[in-house]
Design goal:
two-stranded antiparallel sheet; 71% helix
């Protein structure tokens, strides 16, 4: 197994196993690890859900997290937040957990890889028209791409692509740079200062997860509400 060093920009460069064109990189391994933690954690927390007044501590934490995500979604889109909760909540939890685990020695956040952030951005890119079509219908949704005239169609498409690229690069750049700064500080000053940076990194990681999820919801809301606003006018 290769060890991720300072001169390696992405965990994609660490190949753990390869057979022909099939390869398992550090990015893929840590992504599977995060997914396994989320699935196992979801099962453990929800297996004993109760509607009684007295609930378990983990159920209380789950209810706070879900309620917070629902409220944030509702602030952006006044519709029923339950329609978007699974997708937006999954994005936030995956990115947030990926970033928070940076405090674990030897761990490399999959979000510090452009491959992972691009995949997440593509999920948003696909989800936006799907939610828009579900709300407006396929003809009404794609009709917006030709407004005010058909000449604007390539510009609308370009806008969708560029904001998807911006989502991927923003998250990748922030997490990759933070990861490298921590590694350098650990090598130069291996005592008190890196501890402070790790604490700050936890906050930055959660903020980045929040921003990514909020931007995804904003894009979805713009796709689902555009037709309604035009109808009201």
């Amino acid at each position: 197994m290769e060890i991720l060093s300072l001169n390696q920009i992405s965990p994609d460069q660490v190949i753990l196993w390869q057979w022909g064109i099939i390869r398992i990189t550090a990015t893929l391994m840590y992504t599977w690890f995060i997914m396994a933690l989320l699935v196992m954690g979801s099962w453990l927390v929800t297996r004993r859900l109760s509607s009684d007044v007295r609930t378990t501590r983990w159920q209380g934490v789950l209810e706070v997290v879900v309620s917070t995500i629902r409220n944030q979604i509702k602030e952006i889109n006044p519709e029923d937040p339950g329609h978007y909760l699974a997708f937006i909540g999954s994005l936030f939890l995956f990115v947030g957990l990926s970033n928070v685990l940076l405090i674990v020695p030897g761990y490399v956040a999959p979000t510090s890889s452009l491959t992972t952030t691009a995949a997440l951005a593509v999920c948003v890119f696909i989800a936006v028209p799907l939610y828009g079509i579900t709300k407006q219908g396929i003809l009404s949704y794609f009709k917006e791409y030709f407004q005010p005239t058909f000449i604007f169609f390539p510009f609308h498409v370009m806008g969708e692509v560029t904001r998807t690229l911006a989502l991927a690069v923003r998250l990748f750049g922030n997490m990759m740079s933070h990861d490298k700064v921590i590694a350098i500080l650990l090598a130069v000053t291996p005592l008190f200062f890196p501890i402070v940076m790790h604490a700050l990194g936890l906050l930055i990681g959660l903020v980045q997860a929040y921003i990514f999820a909020i931007l995804a919801m904003v894009y979805i809301a713009s796709a689902t509400q555009a037709h309604e606003e035009k109808t009201e006018k």
